[in-house]
Hints:
Blueprint: H1 3-13, E1 25-29, E2 32-35, E3 40-43, H2 46-49, H3 58-70, H4 81-94, E4 100-104, H5 107-119, E5 125-129, H6 138-143, H7 147-150, E6 160-163, H8 168-174, E7 179-184, H9 200-211, E8 214-218, E9 242-245, E10 256-260, H10 281-296, H11 299-314, E11 320-326, E12 329-334, H12 339-348, E13 351-352, E14 354-357, E15 360-363, H13 371-388
Parallel strand pairs: 3-13, 5-6, 5-7, 7-8, 8-9
Antiparallel strand pairs: 1-2, 2-3, 4-10, 9-10, 11-12, 12-15, 14-15
Amino acid sequence: MRNKDFADLWTKNLMANYATPSITLVKGKGSVVFDADGNRYIDMLGGIATNILGHSHPVVVSAVSRQIKILSHVSNFYAHPNVIELAQTLIRLTGNKDSRVFFAQSGAEVNEAAIKLSRKTGRTRIVATTSSFHGRTTGSLSLTGQSSKRTPFLPLLKNVKHIPFGDIKKAKKAINSKTAMFIVEPIMGEAGVIVPPADYLKEVRKYCTAHGALLVIDAVQTGIGRTGQWFGYEYSGIQPDVITVAKGLGAGLPLAAMIAVGKSSQLFAPGDHGSTFGGNPVTTAASVAAIKWIEKNKILAKCKADFRYIHSSLKTVQGVREVRGAGLLIGIALEKDISSSIAIQLQERGILVNAANPNTIRIAPALTISKKELAKFVEVFKEVMRDVN
Ligand SMILES: Cc1ncc(COP(=O)(O)O)c(C=O)c1O
């Protein structure tokens, strides 16, 4: 079957919540994927910041295969060594040994968990930011700051106030002694890779501490090394009360975590929350193996160097306004609203990217992507921009 056949079947069988994809991907290795017609692509999107080690990385394949042969799933009536090892690893990465972890499968779910955790403070008011993306379940959509996604599903949770991202004065005004939590992405991913002012997180930390509000860092997209730091907020020097991670955490398998740091780790009591698949032995095996590999191979430093390379290679290309982000979460802002057309042209020339908004191309490839593959992306991107100019 070819791309066209799959597209027809998609339309006939899947709900219309996604546009029908023009290509069907059937196999991949590292940062290279192939579609049903046999076309080869460099995957510069990594399942949207998810396949941190690329496709079928040997350490992930072997960890998953080993685990599925022994034991596939246990309920949360029982412990499993992998879930404990991964929780220990995440706690170590936060730098605060009093942290505790709750596992789930998706970013929306762990943000839901954060909402429930914040209710245990006895408060219900939440502050979030305009244009943010925190998920599409009813609770997480209440946090998401995009009216196009929210409006068809109103009414959502009450008591959620959205303030402009990066606006320190508005944050100071909005966070008060009734605020249960303030949730923020260290870099807004879905909005088009938007970086806040350098002192933003430090300032919001101050206001949250002053009023006893939880500071929740949504590191679903920025987490697990993507920005050249483990969670994406560390450059600010702050310690959040809660960190949510998903996407890259499972190295291509569905896995998410809410990490409650310090005192907030004591807020949940038995029965307060749960998830059947949370902390599944197979997904946590993949995660432990991937994180070990990232540490051993000094991938965080590589991501920082990759950002410098893409930034210096593309910032002066005609038609590019700005290259922003950190590590391998990069937004290439264009002077005109042509990102969809650029993404299609790149796809036709063997490069997969995403048009995050009308004038921004987002790339979030595997952290393992090679210099040669990045150089190929730069070359093809320049060609496409030359053709449109
Ligand atoms: C910052 C952020 N939070 C939450 C989510 C929701 O994650 P999921 O799609 O796994 O529910 C996303 C997804 O793109 C995200 O980027």
